[in-house]
Amino acid sequence: MPERQSSRKDAIRNREAVLAAADALFTRRESPEDVTMADVAAAAGVGKGTLFRAFGDRAGLLHALYEARLEPIRQAVETGPPPLGPAAPPHDRVPALLDAVLCFKLDNRRLALALEEGGSSSPYRAEHYERWHSLLRAVLEQIPGLTDSDFTAHALLAATRADLVEYLAGEARIPRERIRAQLANFVTRVLASGPLQGLTAEE
Q1: What is residue 199's DSSP assignment?
Q2: Residue 16: phi, psi to the nearest 5?
Q3: Burial of 84 (0-12, 13-18, 19+ CB in 10 A)
Q4: C-alpha angle with apex 29: 174 to 167, nearest 5 degrees?
Q5: Are 163 and 117 a contacting pair, CB within 8 Å?
Q6: Residue 139 burial (CB < 10 Å; 0-12/13-18/19+)?
Q7: How far is 28 from 40, CA to CA, in rounded Å?
Q8: What is the pLDDT of residues 18-40, one digit of tens each?
Q9: Which one, of 72, 18, 70, lies nearest residue 48 by Cα?
């Protein structure tokens, strides 16, 4: 039993070291593609075998790091006060949710870009995307007169895609607060527009 507990503590310690090393590497490197599993293993002081056993592959490592950074926002969304928390009115909560996603991606540009670009499957099938889409759709469904919440949720989330955020903040050099204001104005217009030309999801 003591050996098993020691092994578990070692595994936890190794995982924390790997996440910390990956976090530092993705922050420093210009391109997400510059960070390899070998780089992370070396920086964490663990073998590549340990890295692959703990996370499976590069996509698994990216996902674990993304989720670790996202945890404070998730807690605020699930149990926190308005405007992010569940007690907020939908007209207030939708813009707050999208602003939280945008700010997270602005703060984690390289990691978000690496995660959304990595892998061979559709980014829309990724667990983190499906979770945000499901939440946003559920809140949109609470707004009277707004139809096709499923598509609207997709369209609003498209404004926070990592590649768009990277272009706006990087190449276009638009200030952070201006990007946030532009997104807020866009969301307000969408929520105020009601049904698009009388169309519904069934049509």
Answers
A1: -
A2: -65, -40
A3: buried
A4: 25
A5: yes
A6: buried
A7: 12
A8: 999 988 888 887 777 788 899 99
A9: 18
User: Alpha carbon of 93 to those of 81, 89, 99, 176: distances in Å?
Assistant: 11, 6, 10, 21
Using an 8 Å Cβ cutoff, are 27 and 43 in contact? Answer: no
With 0-12 CB in 10 A as exposed, 13-18 as middle and 19+ as buried, what is 62? buried
H or E element that contains 198? none
Count of residues making up the chain: 203
For the chain, the distance separating the N- and C-terminal CA atoms, rounded to the nearest angstrom, is 63
Q: What amino acid is encoded at 77 in this protein? A: V
For residue range 85-132, list pLDDT tens digits in order. 999 999 999 999 999 999 999 999 888 888 887 654 677 878 889 999
Exposed, middle or buried, 165 (CB in 10 Å: 0-12/13-18/19+)? buried
Q: Which amino acid would we find at residue 201?
A: A
Cα–chain center distance at 140:
19
Structure tokens at 151: 């598509």
Q: Which two tokens stand for residue 179?
A: 């990007």
The answer to whether 174 and 89 have CB atoms below 8 angstroms apart is no
